[in-house]
Amino acid sequence: xxxxxxxxxxxxQNSTFALNITAMTDMFTLLLVFLLQSYSxxxxxxxxxxxxxxxxxxxxxxxTDVLQISISLxxxxxxxxxxxxxxxxxIASADVDPQDSNFIQPLFKELQERAKDPKxxxxxxxxxxxxxxxxxxxxxYQTLRKVMYTASMAGFPHVKLITVIGN
Amino acid sequence: xxxxxxxxHSELEVDLxxxxxxxxxxxPVLLLSSAFMQIMVIETDLPxxxxxxxxxxxxxxxxxxLVEVTPDRKIMITVDSNGTKSSVSVESKEGQIDLNKLxxxxxxxxxxxxxxxxxxxxxxxxxxxSEVVRVMDEARRSRDFNIRFPIxxxxxxxxxxxxxxxxxxxxxxxxxx
Lengths: 167, 177
Known about the structure:
Chain A has a domain at 56-165: Nucleotidyltransferase, domain 5, CATH 3.30.420. Chain A is built from four helices and seven strands. Chain A has helices spanning 22-37, 105-116, 124-127, 141-153, and strands spanning 56-57, 67-71, 75-78, 81-87, 90-91, 130-135, 158-165. A seven-stranded mixed sheet of chain A has the order 1-7-6-2-3-4-5. In chain A, α2 (105-116) packs parallel to α4 (141-153). Chain A is elongated and about 100 Å long. Chain B has 177 residues and is an alpha/beta fold. Helices cover 32% and strands 24% of the residues of chain B. In chain B, the strands form two sheets. Chain B has a five-stranded mixed sheet with strand order 4-3-2-5-8. The longest helix of chain B has 17 residues, at 17-33. Chains A and B meet through α1, β1, α4 and β7 of A and α1, β1 and α4 of B. β7 (158-165) of chain A pairs antiparallel with β1 (39-42) of chain B, so a sheet runs across the interface.
């Protein structure tokens, strides 16, 4: 009786196999070109807020590191802190001074505190009363005007408008 | 004499492994630092000559250009030159600001008053922020880079040109109720 031989794969122990990586290199080259093109040299971190669509502009100036105010369709924020409410694209009446309809009291208080606090100062530009304003493109000018008016009262008269590049 | 044998059918294999290794390191770094949405600010660093011209205009303050955006998207441009006022109006187009005509109007005013670099902007309360930004874009620079405006370099005294029209924009009605 003959014994059946166990099947074994004929593998050469010292062999290597060549992997064709040309296609992968092509893909990485394309990816590299795309990423180099969209590489950001700006040191300022701006996080767009939910429900906030920035307007388009043909300005090519990078933002500077100063205090940021954002006005979305729901609220006004100083950095990440919500200071006032926006309803129907208008500042909520509870946040507006009854004596002066352009004056947003909680925003003024927050900005004044930050203007006085040396820890919250980010750069020399902030000392010169500069701030970055990101606002939803659909907001009416009268809402923006109230924010700019209050900011100038609090010692921030130089407002830089944040936009997205393109037409 | 022995002849050199060249095999014309042989293929040259380049070792791409090291190149791929470099790319593998570069790609994550670039992915982390990429800006997929390019955010900019409106307020340009102007050339020295333009900055000096703006300072000169602020000191002398003889001419003033007021741009009003009405609720029905009509633009009224009033030029006050030493007390003499002249107005230009740009009618709206299908309920929107006619940006092409507005740009042409700005260009004509700049040709007449090349020493003016500042405008006062007074949009109505109901004008959307995006429309305000578009008006500012049209005023700031000439769309056609071949159209340039004369400017005098105060330091050297030489005449030069710039494509900037009205880069200094002030919201003049900010304090109004």
